[in-house]
Amino acid sequence: MNDFIHLFQYTFFQNALYASLLISILSAIIGTYIVARKSVFISGGITHASFGGIGIAYYLGLNPFFGAAVFAILTGTGIEWISNKGKMREDSAIAILWSLGMALGIIFVFLTPGYAPNLMSFLFGSILSVGIVDVYTMLALTLLIAAFFLIYYRPILFSAFDAEFSKINGMKVAFFRYAMAILVALSIVVSIRAMGIILVLSLFTIPQTTAMLYTHQFRKIVGLSIVFGLAGSIFGLFAAYAMNIPSGATIIFSLTLQYLILKGIHLIQLRMMQSA
Fold this sequence. Notes:
The chain has 12 helices and no strands. By secondary structure, the protein is mainly α. The protein has one domain: ABC transporter involved in vitamin B12 uptake, BtuC (Orthogonal Bundle), CATH 1.10.3470. It is globular. The protein starts with a helix and ends with a helix.
């Protein structure tokens, strides 16, 4: 027990806790939007396509996360444009951009002169290596997204779920959809530092799916997702330390285990109510 208490003395662990809290809030807001709009596959395309930006940035000697952000935004807005114009099936466009981004990332990383960077940190992340700059970046984006949702809550929901009705009533549907595509892309990129490309999408879907066991109201899903996301992240951090295993994978496993346990309890309660 003392070993766990001593962990709080270390800056790297404090940063990991701050990152867990901020990503839980960030993923709760954006993830609820993603799940409610049924656009998880789109987000998967954005996540994996961003690897192309990482590879190109490495090749050009730029910050890899800057390249990821540019690629993620281009992919998110590109998919939104394709879905609006209808010149290609949306799932086909996502599959092409998904595969193209990963392929470009691998090619440019290995074309980069000198020592090839370790791809594991981008694919699987490391929340324990998050620095204070990363924490401030997450904080700034979380505040921006929270403010955007508070100001434009109803237009965001209406434009997402009933675009035609929103257009008839004069709402700027295109603006809100493209704005959300950009915010989803940026949220994914800042979370990659902690969770990695392979795992980050789970953080935007599992807590929300767990929350939906208890409610289908958007605001309540966000609130419960923060609680479930933070609880799973903290448990995963301690479990990773105790077992000396990768923190990102342990957090996702914790979130999945949390969902399965609560789903099982939920099913038992339903059967008891039906038999009563």
